Amino acid sequence: MSTNNTTGPRWSGRRVRAARMLAAGVDIAQVATALDLSPATARRYESVFAAGGPDALMGLGDVGRRPRLTADGLTRLIVAIGQPPRKAGLVAECWTNLLVQRYIEREFQISYSYSHINRLIRDHGLQRWIR
Q1: Residue 1 belongs to a domain
Q2: Do 76 and 117 reside in the same domain of the chain?
Q3: Are 113 and 107 in contact (CB under 8 A)?
Q4: Is the residue at 5 inside a domain?
Q5: Does residue 95 contact residue 85 with C-beta atoms inside 8 Å?
Q6: DSSP characters over 50-92
Q7: CA Rg, the chain, in Å?
Q8: Distance separating alpha carbons of residues 35 and 57, to the nearest angstrom
Q9: 64 falls within a domain
Q10: Mean pLDDT of 18-32
Q11: For residue 54, how many other CB atoms are within 10 A of its CB?
């Protein structure tokens, strides 16, 4: 594996940097701080790296909490946001982050934090419809 690869999932660049730092003998606490990792994640990276090197670290795959909104639900949300809120049965002239949050709760029975709603909107390019 080439550790200068900058393509791939969004987490791959951070893992490449972690692999370089660990290979250079950087303390795990410094790795966690420099890369904004939780201590548990940094320790996991360290143990995986020690067992199998950079390839093992990059081979972890996408880890973390799995999305609660299904692919179909996400598609429905994107379609809804692309139309005026009234089409979705909401009394509003334009979409806001709070309205998106309420729509998700109503339609999918999923409660997301305000910061997660911001991330969802940003990650799926929905900002142009949000005021």
Answers
A1: no
A2: yes
A3: no
A4: no
A5: yes
A6: HHHHHHHHHTT-S-SPPPSS-HHHHHHHHHHHTS-GGGGT---
A7: 19
A8: 15
A9: no
A10: 88
A11: 20
Q: State the residue for tokens 């009394």.
A: 91
Give me the residue label for tokens 């670290």.
57
The pLDDT, as a whole number, for residue 36 is 79
Count of domains forming the chain = 2
At 6, the amino acid letter reads T
Q: String of b and e for 21-44 (b: at least 16 CB within 10 Å)?
A: bbeeeeebeebbeebebeeebbee
Report the predicted TM-score, pTM, of the whole model to 2 decimal places: 0.55
* pLDDT surpassing 70 at residue 28: yes
Full domain range(s) for residue 123: 71-129
Tokens representing 37?
Answer: 């990792």
**Could you tell me what percentage of the chain is helix, strand and coil, using 3-state DSSP and rounding each to the nearest 5?**
60, 0, 35
Q: Is the dihedral of CA 116, 120, 123, 126 positive or negative?
A: negative
What residues form DSSP beta bridges with 95?
130
Residue 104 lies in a domain: yes
80/12 Cα distance (integer angstroms)? 32
Predicted local distance difference test score (pLDDT) of residue 75 = 95
Residues in the chain: 131
Say if CB 75 and CB 40 are below 8 A apart.
no
- Judge if 45 and 91 occupy the same domain: no
